[in-house]
Structures are given as C-alpha cells and as structure tokens.
Request: fold
Amino acid sequence: MSTLDARPIIAAGGEPFDAIMSAVAALAEGEEFVVLTPFEPVPLEGVLSSQGFLYEAVDLGAGDWQVTFRRPS
Reply:
C-alpha cells in the first residue's frame, strides 16, 4: 500500500495531481493507494474510476478525507 498526504501540497498552493498519478501508475494489480486531502477529491475519484480503479472515500472530520483506491485483480 502506498500513501500520499496531499494536504501540505494543497495548503502551500500546489497541485498534487502529478504526484498522485505517478503513484497510481506504479501500483501492482490488487495494490491499494491512499490519498489524504482537505476535501473529497470528486474529480480524482472520477478520473481513476474511469481507469478501472475502485475507491472508498471516508470523511475523517474537520474537513479531511481519506480515499483508498484499488486496482482490481
């Protein structure tokens, strides 16, 4: 499992999309990728689900979200 905390990147005004896509590209079949964000990343969920990924979004409270993406086996 790989994890990316995108909150500091976003707080600094950056865009974590390239880092997320790089991490996702390195996933093996059945492997999970977790991203932490300060909002539910609905556009990212759409992009990755269109590429065949399954995901589960969890509201952690205080505006933070944890989304787990999995490439099906």
User: Anything to note?
Assistant: The helical segments are 7-11, 17-25, 42-50.
